[in-house]
Amino acid sequence: MPRTYSLISGDSHLQIPPDRWTHRVPSQYKDLAPRRIRLPQGGDGIVGVGGGLVWGGTGSYAGHTPEDYYPMAPIDYDETVGSGSPEQRVQEQDADGIEAELIYAGTPTGLRFIDKLPDHEAHLAMIRAYNDFLADDYCGYAPDRLFGTGVLPRGNIDEKVAEMEHCKKSGLKAIHITSYPSGRNHPMPEDDRFWAASLDLDMPITIHTALAHHTGEGGEPLFNYPIKPSSDLPPDDFVSHLSRYYGWSRSGGVDAAQMALDGLFDRFPKLRIYWGENAIGWVPFMYEQMDIEYEKSHYWAERLYGLKRLERRPSEYLREHAVWGFYEDRVGLQLRDWLGIDNIVWGGDFPHYPTRWPESRAYLARQLDGVPDEERRKILAQNLIDFLHLDAVAGPAPRLEVATPT
Fold first, then answer.
1. Total domains in the fold of the chain
2. In the 8-state DSSP scheme, what is residue 233?
3. Which of 24, 50, 60, 144 could form a disulfide with 129 if both were Cys (CB 3.0 to 4.6 A apart)?
């Protein structure tokens, strides 16, 4: 019988040190794995073989107040809210009145150091070790409450598809991508093998805030244009033009413009992408401005770049295929009809700085004031259930008590 949910967070983080999962790394690669060290000033730091140090930051806010929080304070991951065992995590959900979470890897896991390993076989082994830990050791404790997002290796698309297949078999609920499948900062034709495989596997694809493409670095264009203009005066990059009002913040605006312009959703009409941990108030503005810019500029873009004209306006594709996550955005909720009520997902961002743990329900009450119950039901549970293809249903919208404004 399908489980019934009323409140699921579509954005949370596994804020654990690497020693929690590196026991799964094969013995020949253990010396290359990220590790936890004790800092001279106290607290934990995370280091990798190639150098670099991660410590402090805004990832461990839960359990603090604005008055006592300091991002450079030492962190002991054995004593920190949001950094414990899966048993602890379920207790933290209960304390917040949350029934389940979609969980992304946090910075302390050390995965950023794995991406820099020159030994590719070691890199592949560590990606597999983390995904197996997440599926079996962590989410396996409470699979109906802990929804893990698998990570993919760098490198060729065949390796990424193989890891996605493994994640699907292991029970992870989605794949978190941090770049286009080809590894480029814009869509490429070879990406289609990955998108097709995700649909064949029925494996949802999510982006956390935005793809990690370093837009425009070294003069590289933001799209694989059929025609590469040669001129002493560099032309206006068309993707940059489409996204000129909203492009370079911590949001998925550039990704969305690229995907719409690429015709991705014409080729894959069943594909949907979920951008987690975004404010949503800017999205209606993006849709309007993207359409205005496209209608005025696609003629010269066709001549200059050889771009094929889209069959529909960019916003029409995105209203069907883009799902947006938010944590606290009353303005965005007022504009929800512009996004489409089926395309909005709430996520608490636990235990990061935006979290309202353990009072998420109270702050949600303030945000959702005036939103009808059926729309609340979708935003708080049904939309994520649908996106993740869960064997579950959303129950009635939860009763929420309004918080005192801060």
1. 1
2. S
3. 24
Handedness of CA 313, 317, 319, 322 (dihedral sign): negative
Encode burial over 182-199: b for 16+ CB neighbours within 10 A, e otherwise. Answer: bbebbbeeebbebbebbe
If one counts every other C-beta atom within 10 angstroms of the C-beta of residue 330, the result is: 13
Residues 6+ apart with CB under 8 A from 100: 5, 8, 9, 93, 144, 145, 146, 147
Closest C-alpha to 274, from 342, 351, 363: 342
CB within 8 Å of 137: residues ≥ 6 apart:
21, 24, 86
Q: 116 in a domain, yes or no?
A: yes
| Strand, coil or helix: 396 | coil
Domain contains 173 = yes
Q: Is the pLDDT confidence value at 67 over 80?
A: yes
306 domain residue, yes or no = no
| Percent helix, percent strand, percent coil in the chain, to nearest 5 | 40, 15, 45
pLDDT tens digit sequence for 187-233: 999 999 999 999 999 999 999 999 865 444 455 777 888 887 765 54
Task: Write the CA distances from 297 to 50, 215, 236, 242, 258, integer angstroms.
Answer: 45, 21, 11, 9, 15
Strand pairing of 205-208 and 146-150?
unpaired
- By C-alpha distance, which of 112, 106, 8 is closest to 60? 106
Q: What is the pLDDT of residue 405?
A: 47
By C-alpha distance, which of 211, 18, 8 is closest to 106? 18
Task: Decide if 228 is inside a domain.
Answer: no
Distance separating alpha carbons of residues 38 and 153, to the nearest angstrom: 29
How far, in Å, CA of 257 to CA of 243, rounded?
7
117: domain CATH number is 3.20.20.140
Which of 35-49, 57-71, 139-153, 246-260 shows the lowest mean pLDDT across its residues?
246-260
Q: Are strands 44-47 and 174-176 parallel, antiparallel or unpaired?
A: unpaired
Terminal-residue alpha carbon distance, the chain: 42
| Separation of alpha carbons 39 and 219, rounded Å | 40
Point out which residues pair with 345 in neighbouring strands.
Answer: 325
CB atoms < 10 A from the CB of 178, how many?
18
The domain of 109 spans 3-212+250-293+312-394
Q: For residue range 277-289, what is the model confidence (pLDDT) as tens digits?
A: 988 999 999 999 9
